[in-house]
Predict the structure.
Amino acid sequence: MFHRYVLTICILLLTLFFNSKICPAGDLPWITMYLPSYYQDDRGALIVHLGDDDFKKITHLSHHGPYVNKDGSFNYKPTRYAERKGEKAVEIAHAHNIPILLCIVSWKEYLITIKNETSRTNLVKNTVHLMDRLGYDGIDVDLEPVIHPGMPEIADKNPDYILFIKQLSDSLQVRKSALLGRTPLLTTAVNGVAGAALVEIYMLYDQINLMTYDMSQPWSGWPVWHDAAISNAGFPFPNVGDLHSPSVIEDVEKCRHLGIPAGKLGIGVSADAFQWKGGAGTSTGGATEPLQQWSIPPKWTRFAYKEMLEHHFKSDFYRWDDMAKMSYLSIDREGSADDEFWSYNDVRSCFEKMRFVQNQQLGGVIIWELGSSYLANTSNGEHLPQLDALYRTKMGWQGPQVYTLIIENGSGAGTYESGTIVKIKANAPSDGQIFQTWSGDTKMITDIHSAITTITMPDSMVTVTAIFQDN
């Protein structure tokens, strides 16, 4: 009996050691980071230089790689993939005991590939052959879209995609990842509406990652909105036939309602920043705040998070949307052409997303992508703020300290981190009156005699009141 006990303990300890070796960032939730080939140089080395403190927070890497041709072969040019880049990426990942997946890529054209049995079989063979040759630990399928309401052939079903995934999965069953000591992983990145097809094959996947970003643009009838709001609080967004929902919750619920287990699902965090600029017809002229209705659409542009921080961010532009759980910038300039609304995931937004994953018992998160958020001029372990916030929350961090700002007779109220500079504005005075001063907790107000000024949030709740006097 004693020998059985000792044997059991030894097996458990070896299992724990093996698992910790394979996933340095611990157990679930997974944190899968995308590494696009265009962030590697011609010798295959990473252009961004990650340290051990960065790698320990990642559970998986997905090497965004070859583009799928119609005949099932690969085109390396669109993503700047090269096999030497694949070899180097695998070498770096395995040096840190991180599984790395070969990500195959296509937009719409793949539908022609998988419709034909010959080209579909070619794609499976070419995929697993490249995986075997370069030593990847699995396949990440990024063939989009899987379901699209605006495309009649895949409006609500995609049988060819199901056949392809089954065939690919069968090919993986006779293989083994040396790093993992098991069958290679099979994952996918999709939008929430893809659940209609995935419900038949979800058991074949190790991860189903929902691309819960890029969820809003100035489409006809839509208001100004975040790219990755956790909740829209039931706001009646119009049906424009697009494949996105305007919230993370809705995308997750679409899949769970169909019976896909929560533990199979991950959500997406984008390291991009989305600028809405100009437009007309809103309450401030152009786009400056979420849920503004416009008459002339604003311009919409994607930036890297690091580019937004370096060239556009000012602390007095910063706002927090507690309904959407998103950070944004609000820039209200003279006229409307130069007004701006920026939506992005920062530390606070990422804390809320990982907390959502944990509360809903989801499988994990993906981060798109490595280079967009990399801040070179920071200390070790802080190069990737989105990754850092997700990891720390996963490990028990309780999030940034935020406090309530109450404003009477004015605007700018909300919840803010200590140290945040918040723009506050007195209401328009009644007839026969003028603004006099701010009263209350005014110690941190820049100019108490200005109707439009800023306050720096202290480590406490603040209440200020705009006072008017007869003119």
Remarks:
- Residues 1-24 have pLDDT under 50 and may be disordered.
- Residues 101 and 175 are 14 Å apart (CA to CA).
- The chain has two domains: 2-273+347-394, 402-470.
- The domain at 2-273+347-394 is CATH 3.20.20.80 (TIM Barrel).
